[in-house]
Amino acid sequence: MRASIGSLAGVVVSVAILATGCSRQAPPDAYGNVEATEVVVAAEATGQVASFTAQEGQRLTIDAVVGSIDATQLGLERDQLSAQREATASRINEVTRQIQMFQAQRDAARAQQEAATAQRAVLEAQLEIARRVYDRTQRLFAQQAATSQQLDQAERELRVVENQIKAQDQQIVAQARQVAAQTEQVAAAEAQRQTVGRQVAGAAAQVAQVSERIRKSQIRNPIAGTVLVTYVKPG
User: Fold this and answer.
1) Segments of 129-224 assigned E as strands
2) What does the alpha-carbon distance between residue 47 and residue 69 come to, in Å, rounded to a whole number?
3) Computed from CA positions of residues 144, 147, 151, 154, in that sequence, does the dihedral angle turn out positive or negative?
4) What pairing do the DSSP bridges indicate for beta strands 39-41 and 3-6?
């Protein structure tokens, strides 16, 4: 998992010093030490080495990938989390369709309620006419200018309109309850959609975390330099 990286300058200097020591030429004018930055490169994750391409003496650029830790299980975990995220995201579309259906039903119920209210206004006008007819028939009957059958007919027409208004009122109340219930369904579906949205965000965060762990399983060279020695092999 590790490779020791040193600068090329340090290696060249070392070779030059050895060559000088093997010759019988005049001694150098000065002596000294050349410092090199030595870095031990390792992956941020632990596990079995899946690949390792660094070789001793190889020149590496900064951020070069020289190997990796086996991340097969992490890849499977990420695929599973991605599938769960997609499945959860599909629920958002399903809940959205439910909301649209509830809203359409509520709008239809409101339209029916408005129509029933308008019809009640018509019945109120008819009721006023029926009352006037009944009152006039009563006066004519008292003056023996109308028959009892005419009076009974006027009374029946009045009662019919009154019953129609009562039925219309009941219908309006029932439609109002239906609108209220469907409004609650819309609100509940909206809350469910928000919950699913948070679940999708949580699943996406989990996918990102696993992806980061996969990234950390790569062995990257932090600086430009030359490989001095390697400590591991694939497997």
Assistant:
1) 218-220
2) 6
3) negative
4) antiparallel
Specify the DSSP element, H or E, that contains 173: helix 148-216
Average pLDDT across the chain, whole number: 84
Q: Mean pLDDT throughout 134-144? A: 91
Question: Cα separation of 170 and 109, whole Å?
Answer: 14
Phi-psi category of 59—alpha, beta or left, where left has phi over 0 and alpha has psi -120 to 50?
A: beta
Assigned token pair, 193: 């959609």
Provide the pLDDT confidence category of residue 32 given band limits of 50, 70 and 90.
confident
Exposure string over 160-199, b if 16+ CB within 10 A, otherwise e:
ebeebbeebeebbeebeebbeebeebbeebeebbeebeeb
Supply the pLDDT for residue 17. 37
The answer to whether the beta carbons of residues 182 and 102 sit under 8 Å apart is yes
Q: pLDDT for 35-60, tens place per residue?
A: 777 888 777 878 888 888 888 888 98
Tokens describing residue 152: 């009974």
Mean pLDDT of all residues in 84-112: 92
**Cβ atoms of 37 and 223 closer than 8 Å:** yes
Output the pTM of the full model. 0.58
Which tokens hold the place of 181? Answer: 């219930």
Residue given tokens 């009374």 in the structure block: 155
Structure tokens at 201: 């965000």
Write the pLDDT tens digit of every residue in 200-235.
999 999 999 999 998 888 888 888 888 888 888 888
The partner residues of 5 in beta bridges, in order of sequence, read 39, 227
Strand partners of residue 68: 51, 218
Strand partners, 226: 6, 59
